[in-house]
Write a structure and sequence with these properties.
17 helices; eight-stranded parallel β-sheet; alpha/beta; single chain; 10 strands
Length: 376
């Protein structure tokens, strides 16, 4: 069984992580004091952590999202955004992540007068600062930004234009998020059409709190390259009592086209998208060779790291190094970085890192496997 320390040591890739869902609780407290925010649900790290994570145990996406009003509230100044972004890069690097795409919604950080461009610039500065700090600690990491528009608002085209404006400075893609039911991605077609004309990357939250129609629209109407979560694609897969598998037309299309699924197992259970880790669709989707990736979603609210997510899958499904490497390379292949950068990381960082991990594992042989000792 792979240990958490072993998994933390190998190079990993993260495609679905929310900046406002990964703050350090101590940072939330300190930023609240600095910015004068007085509505925190706790005045110490333990109480605040408990209150910010309690929604993760209610089994509903909207309840889960309620905690974000507190983290977003303290992320309204350039200094706060730079600090949160820098700490994000440092924390991911400390967990062994070598490449990350971290998403945030600029429109949520303008309550104190910042422009959308100022928000993006502050976050990108923070990512650069945190990455540099990580390198000094011996941990290399590259962090890019995904700009998210809220599907319940009407600023998606504006955010799409913002993303393209900063494409050469660290923004690699566009996303929409928020409540799915009643807010289909096709409401934002003007944004997606603009992004296609600009040859820019798209990922869409779909198939988490709503079913196959959300996934179908994201793929066929909006042209998404990846699916944020995509858990409900399993609704289009039939498994008979004899174990025979039949893919519906949408599931077959997703698999045939190698459309990546940004799955976040712990979060999916907490929001009710999956009943348990044991019953999470990631197992059957991995067996059926879908382009599955493993992600954190919200490290604070879900109390996870990417290493702990892999550890839970290893415990539940018996995953070993070959599984973790396969899922990691899936993620790197699916990243929005350039082909050259992806290939470089796979060949010079990821594969050598897993080869080293295997060698170390093979070198540690339990005494019980050695048999009786012979002398003379």
């Amino acid at each position: 069984m792979l240990t958490l320390a072993e998994i933390r040591a190998v190079p990993k890739v993260l495609l679905h992580d929310h900046l406002d869902g990964g703050l350090r609780p101590q940072t939330v407290l300190e930023l609240a004091g600095e910015t004068g925010y007085r509505d925190l649900p706790g005045d110490n790290v333990e109480e605040l952590t408990r209150r910010l994570t309690e929604g993760a145990h209610r089994g509903h996406l909207e309840v889960y999202l309620d905690a974000f009003r507190h983290t977003v509230a303290v992320m309204q100044t350039p200094d706060a955004l730079r600090r949160v972004a820098a700490e994000c890069a440092e924390d991911l690097a400390a967990d062994g992540v070598v490449y990350a795409e971290v998403r945030f919604a600029p429109e949520l950080h303008t309550e104190r007068g910042l422009s959308l461009d100022q928000v993006v610039e502050a976050v990108l500065e923070g990512f650069a600062r945190g990455s540099a700090n990580a390198v000094q600690q011996g941990r290399g990491i590259k962090v890019y930004a995904l700009l998210t528009a809220m599907r319940t608002a009407a600023r998606s085209l504006e955010i799409a234009e913002l993303a393209v404006r900063h494409r050469d400075h660290g923004v690699v893609g566009f996303d929409i998020a928020g409540a799915e039911a009643g807010w289909p991605p096709s409401r934002h077609l003007d944004a997606f059409q603009y992004l296609k004309r600009e040859n820019f990357h798209i990922t869409i939250h779909a198939g988490e709190a709503f079913g196959l129609p959300s996934i179908w629209e994201a793929v066929q109407w909006c042209g998404t390259e990846r699916l944020g979560h995509g858990v409900r694609i399993v609704d289009d897969i039939e498994i008979t009592s004899e174990g025979a598998v039949r893919l519906g037309r949408l599931a077959a299309y997703i698999r045939d086209r190698r459309i990546p699924l940004e799955m976040c197992p712990t979060s999916n259970v907490q929001t009710g998208a999956a009943r348990s880790i044991a019953e999470h669709p990631i197992r059957i989707l991995r067996q059926l060779q879908f382009r599955v990736t493993v992600n954190t979603d919200n490290r604070l609210m879900s109390q996870v790291t990417l290493s702990s997510e892999f550890r839970r899958l290893a415990e539940e499904f018996g995953y070993g190094w070959s599984d973790v490497e396969w899922l990691t390379i899936n993620a790197m292949k699916s990243a929005f970085a350039s082909f050259d950068e992806r290939l470089h990381l796979i060949n010079t960082v990821i594969k050598p890192g897993f080869a080293t991990a295997r060698a170390l594992s093979d070198a540690v042989v339990p005494a019980s496997m050695l048999g009786p000792r012979h002398t003379g």
